[in-house]
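pinging the channel bc i need a second pair of eyes. not urgent but kinda urgent?? the chain im working w is below, pasted from the shared doc
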Amino acid sequence: ELEKRMATMYIKVDGTELVIIKTVHTLLKRSEGIEAINGRLGIVENKMNELFMQHKEFVSVKDKTSK
């Protein structure tokens, strides 16, 4: 069985709460275990990029209106 811990960290940027998920895992020597871990990390990375892009758009819109 794959041992894993999920830690969630919340940061506020300009009042917007972003969630960063850090995955702490123990690698198994079996290839399917490593592939499963890589899949999970890929999903987490995609989510972080998605949150960043949403925030980036929010900031750019805010900057335009404040000028």
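so Residues 37 and 61 are 36 Å apart (CA to CA). and Helices lie at 31-66. — does that match what u expected or am i reading it wrong
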